[in-house]
Task: inverse folding
C-alpha cells in the first residue's frame, strides 16, 4: 500500500467518526481533490492531507492550537475529546498517587470563547470527563479567560479548561489547561498529560449524555464575583477617571470590562463599535492581536475622535492588554509591552509599601524592571518565557513570605493582583485607566511618566524581530547559535553567552551592554529575536537583530 493510500484510509476512518457535517464534507472534498486530474489541485490537496494526518496535534505548555478542520493535526471535536480524555486520565492518576486530593469529586471548570466550535469543544470536554467519573462545571455563554482562571480557586476545582485560540488568526481554535492554583500548566505536567492523551484513540473516546449528573452548568455568579474583586485592584480610588477608548478585538472581553469599569468607579470605556461584540470571523482584523501592525488602527481612530486620554485593547480572550497614548503632536503612539510594564511598575511600587513585595518578569522582557525593584527595595525575579512561569514563581515565593504585586511579560501579558495566577487583561485595563487618571490629576502626560523613568534609570530601548521557520529548523538554528556562538553580531563583539535550556533560549551580551536573545516560538512557526540596550538608537538595535537573523539557515 502506498503512503497516499494509507493517508486516504486514515481520512476515511476519521470521517466515519467525525461528528460535524461541515468537517465531513470538507474532508470528502479534499480527498476528491487529491484524486483530481488537475496536477496542481491534486498536489495541493495531497499536501494538505499529508499535513493533517502526519501525526497528532501535540499538547504543549500552551495546550493545543491549530486551524479548525478535520484530521488529527487540526482542531476538531475528535481531537478535543482525545485531549479531554488525556486530562481526565492524568487527574485520576494524580488522585491515585495522592498528589491531587479528590480530583474526580472537585472536578474541572470549563469556559469557552466565541470562536468557531468553541461551545461544542467545551461541552464535549465535559461529556468526556463525566464518562470517566469526573465532575465538570461549565461556565455560561462566552467568558474571558481571566474569569475562568479566577473561578478555579473559588470553586476549589482540581483543574480548569478554557477553549480559546487567544490572539491567533481567525481560522484557529485552541485548548488551554490550568492547574488547581489558577495558573497554566508547566513542565513536566504538559508532557505527562500529553502521554496520557496519546493512550486514547480519538475515534473512540466514550461520551456521557449532555444531561449527565456529573455535568453542572454554572450561572453568572462567578463572573459577578470576579467583577466584585476588581475595585481592590485600584491603588488610588479617590482619583476620578478619564475618558478611555477600548477595543474588544471582536472577542469576549467587552461585557466584563464594562462591568469591571463600573465596579471600579469609572465611566464605561468608549468602544470601537465595529469590534465590540464577539465575532468568530474577525472581519476588521486579519490577525486579532494588539501587537500586530494595524490591529489597533480602529481603536486609535476612536481615541482620536472621542478625545480619550488613553486607548486600551484586549485580545479576543481578554488576557492580554495593548495600550496607546496621545503624543505631543496630536497623534497616538502604541506602547511596547515593556513600556506598559514600566508604567505598571512605577505606579504599583509608588503606591504600595513593604520590603516583602515581589515583582516578576520573563527572560525576554526588559531588564529595567529589576533595576526599578532594586531602587525601591523590593524583590525581583526573572523567569522563563510564558506567563505560566510567572504564576509558578508567585506561588513558590508566597511560601517564603514574599508578596506578589506585579508580573509581566513583554508580549502584553500583565498580572496586577494576586488572583488569578495568570495574565489578566481586564484587571490590568482598570489599573492602566487609573494610571492615566493619576497622570491627568498630576498635570503630566503618560509620555512624561515614561520620560521620568528614563531620567532616573537611563533610556532602555527594546526591539524584536521574528524569522519564519518550521519548528524543527528553528530549534536547530538556536542550537547551532548555542553550540557555536558568533564572535560578532554586526559590528559589535560578543562578550558573553548564556543559555537557558528550559526556555530554549540563548542570550548574547554584546559590546556596549547590548543584549540579544534568540529562541523558537512556543506557539508559531518562527524564531524570535529580542534586543535591548540603554541610551541606544532603536535603528542600531534593529540592525543588530537583522545581522543575527541573516545567519539563519535556508528554510
Result:
Amino acid at each position: 500500500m502506498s503512503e497516499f493510500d494509507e493517508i486516504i484510509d486514515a481520512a476515511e476512518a476519521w470521517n466515519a467518526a467525525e461528528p460535524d457535517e461541515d468537517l465531513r464534507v470538507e474532508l470528502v472534498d479534499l480527498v476528491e481533490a487529491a484524486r483530481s486530474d488537475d496536477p496542481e489541485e491534486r498536489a495541493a490537496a495531497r499536501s494538505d492531507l499529508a499535513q493533517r494526518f502526519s501525526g497528532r496535534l501535540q499538547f504543549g505548555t500552551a495546550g493545543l492550537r491549530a486551524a479548525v478542520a478535520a484530521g488529527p493535526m487540526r482542531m476538531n471535536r475528535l481531537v478535543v475529546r482525545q485531549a479531554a480524555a488525556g486530562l481526565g486520565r492524568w487527574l485520576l492518576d494524580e488522585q491515585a498517587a495522592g498528589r491531587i486530593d479528590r480530583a474526580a469529586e472537585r472536578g474541572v471548570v470549563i469556559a469557552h470563547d466565541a470562536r468557531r466550535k468553541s461551545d461544542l469543544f467545551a461541552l464535549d470536554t465535559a461529556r468526556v470527563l463525566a464518562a470517566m467519573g469526573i465532575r465538570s462545571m461549565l461556565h455560561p455563554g462566552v467568558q474571558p479567560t481571566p474569569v475562568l482562571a479566577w473561578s478555579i480557586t473559588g470553586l476549589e476545582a482540581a483543574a480548569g479548561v478554557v477553549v480559546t485560540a487567544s490572539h491567533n488568526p481567525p481560522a484557529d481554535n485552541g485548548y488551554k489547561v490550568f492547574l488547581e492554583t489558577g495558573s497554566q500548566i508547566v513542565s513536566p505536567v504538559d508532557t505527562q498529560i500529553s502521554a496520557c492523551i496519546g493512550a486514547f484513540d480519538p475515534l473512540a473516546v466514550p461520551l456521557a449524555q449532555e444531561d449527565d449528573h456529573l455535568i453542572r452548568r454554572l450561572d453568572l455568579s462567578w463572573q459577578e464575583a470576579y467583577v466584585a474583586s476588581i475595585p481592590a485592584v485600584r491603588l488610588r480610588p479617590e482619583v476620578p477617571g478619564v475618558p478611555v477608548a477600548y477595543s474588544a478585538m471582536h472577542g469576549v472581553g467587552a461585557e466584563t470590562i464594562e462591568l469591571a469599569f463600573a465596579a471600579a468607579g469609572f465611566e464605561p470605556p468608549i468602544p470601537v463599535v465595529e469590534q465590540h461584540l464577539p465575532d468568530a470571523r474577525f472581519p476588521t482584523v486579519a490577525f486579532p492581536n494588539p501587537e500586530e501592525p494595524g490591529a489597533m488602527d480602529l481603536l486609535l481612530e476612536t481615541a482620536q475622535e472621542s478625545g480619550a486620554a488613553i486607548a486600551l485593547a484586549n485580545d479576543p480572550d481578554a488576557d492580554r492588554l495593548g495600550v496607546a497614548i496621545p503624543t505631543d503632536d496630536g497623534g497616538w503612539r502604541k506602547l511596547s509591552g515593556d513600556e506598559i510594564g514600566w508604567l505598571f511598575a512605577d505606579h504599583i511600587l509608588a503606591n504600595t509599601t513593604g520590603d516583602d513585595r515581589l515583582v516578576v518578569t520573563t527572560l525576554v522582557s526588559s531588564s529595567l524592571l529589576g533595576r526599578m525593584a532594586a531602587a525601591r527595595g523590593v524583590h525581583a525575579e526573572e523567569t522563563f518565557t510564558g506567563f505560566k512561569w510567572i504564576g509558578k514563581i508567585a506561588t513558590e515565593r508566597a511560601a517564603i513570605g514574599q508578596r506578589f504585586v506585579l508580573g509581566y511579560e513583554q508580549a502584553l501579558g500583565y498580572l496586577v493582583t494576586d488572583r488569578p495566577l495568570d495574565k489578566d487583561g481586564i484587571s490590568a485595563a482598570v489599573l492602566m485607566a487609573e494610571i492615566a487618571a493619576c497622570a491627568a490629576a498630576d498635570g503630566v502626560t503618560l509620555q512624561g511618566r515614561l520620560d521620568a523613568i528614563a531620567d532616573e534609570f537611563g533610556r532602555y530601548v527594546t526591539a524584536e524581530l521574528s524569522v519564519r521557520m518550521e519548528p524543527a529548523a528553528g530549534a536547530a538554528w538556536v542550537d547551532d547559535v548555542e553550540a557555536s556562538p558568533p564572535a560578532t553580531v554586526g559590528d559589535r563583539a560578543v562578550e558573553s553567552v548564556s543559555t537557558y535550556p528550559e526556555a530554549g533560549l540563548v542570550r548574547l551580551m554584546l559590546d556596549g551592554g547590548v543584549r540579544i536573545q534568540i529562541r523558537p516560538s512556543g506557539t508559531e512557526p518562527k524564531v524570535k529575536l529580542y534586543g535591548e540596550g540603554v541610551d541606544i538608537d532603536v535603528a542600531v538595535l534593529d540592525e543588530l537583530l537583522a545581522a543575527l537573523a541573516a545567519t539563519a539557515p535556508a528554510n
Notes: The first helix runs from residue 3 to 17.
